[in-house]
Write a structure and sequence with these properties.
Immunoglobulin-like, elongated, mainly beta, 336 residues, five-stranded mixed beta sheet, ten-stranded mixed beta sheet
């Protein structure tokens, strides 16, 4: 996780987008009745009403504990989490150990509810040293100043999109809390539309039809934000690769899925494969993780649509399928 980059992206997208904004807080606490076991919890501010149609897009939690203790038995309970880094006794804090847990996917889905804690994962901490674990305080902890002695990137971060509220919900990590009390700053659900200073341009999206295709337009070149050059790219369909793992998708109707995405991670192409041959029409739309629109494609009668994403920066992106004024499904994929 690059907290500086994420913060810059968040500020940039917030200035040009319309969001319902909320704060998320984290804590670490001993699990009652389980020896040497601790849990990391997330909690949304009490006056926010998140829906069940959320996607957690990115996250990291850095746990600190006394040197001489052993971190083990990580058990993800909401979302998939994996150890990114373990730094024992860095020069900035020689008596501490830092473990950063990275968020990999929203499976099982992390459910956020007002005034309710969500247990993300548990772990065990054993050893002869005394002391309980704590969460890093971004920008305050001596090890959380880049560059540090081991070129590590510790810190806490959590970014969630909520497709079930209007306008689109954006929930981001704000700080840590203890016990059952969370202090929220400002008015989390306020919606503000701000135009970036001096920005009078319109984001370019180039849409072209592949050579020889006389049917309804079904392919798009996506121009990344800020790229004002002309993109010279030939559209082709990747040869017969349907075996790669599909990205996670979320059906908003509670019925059968409408599409799968492959490959994941994507390098130059991402293919939307529709699963219901009896359904036609609708629009596929591509967004950044924070809701900035990058382009759209009319489905027509096609059973597959292929997008050239080679010009996009590495990271997570969202694809949404809309039809007859309704969002039927959205999915997330990783661009390498």
């Amino acid at each position: 996780m690059n907290k500086v980059r994420l913060l810059c992206l968040f500020v940039a997208y917030l200035t040009i987008s319309n969001f319902a904004v909320a704060q998320v807080h984290l804590k670490v606490e001993a699990i009652s009745g389980a020896a040497n076991t601790y849990g990391v919890y997330a909690r949304v501010c009490g006056d926010v009403m998140p829906s069940g149609n959320t996607i957690t897009g990115s996250g990291q939690v850095t746990v600190i504990f006394p040197a001489g203790m052993t971190f083990s038995n990580v058990t993800p309970l909401a979302g998939t989490w994996m150890q990114n880094a373990l730094v024992p006794s860095p020069a900035e804090a020689p008596n501490k150990v830092y473990v950063s847990m990275g968020f990999l996917s929203d499976n099982p889905q992390i459910i956020y509810q007002p005034d309710t804690e969500t247990l993300l994962f548990t772990f065990k901490l054993t050893g002869s040293s005394a002391g309980a674990p704590e969460l890093i305080v971004n920008g305050v902890d001596p090890f959380d100043h880049l560059p540090n002695s081991v070129s590590s990137n510790p810190g806490n971060e959590l970014t969630i999109l909520d497709f079930g509220v209007q306008p689109l919900g954006l929930y981001t990590y704000e700080g840590n809390y203890d016990g059952n009390t969370v202090s929220c700053n400002g008015n989390p659900q306020d919606t503000t539309i701000i135009t970036p200073p001096g920005d009078t341009t319109t984001q370019d999206t180039t849409i072209i039809t592949p050579p020889g295709d006389t049917t309804t337009q079904d392919t798009t070149i996506i121009t990344p934000p800020g790229d004002t050059t002309t993109q010279d790219t030939t559209i082709i369909t990747p040869p017969g690769d349907t075996t790669q793992q599909t990205s996670g998708v979320k059906n908003l109707e509670g019925q059968s899925d409408h599409f799968n995405l492959y490959p994941t991670p994507a390098y130059e192409w991402i293919t939307v494969k529709f699963l219901n041959p009896g359904m036609e029409g609708g629009t596929i739309r591509l967004f950044t993780l924070n809701g900035t629109s990058l382009g759209e494609i009319k489905r027509g009668q096609k059973q597959e649509l292929t997008l050239n994403v080679s010009g996009l920066s590495s990271g997570f992106y969202l694809i949404r399928y809309d039809k007859d004024g309704k969002t039927l499904q959205h999915g997330k994929f990783l661009k390498q």
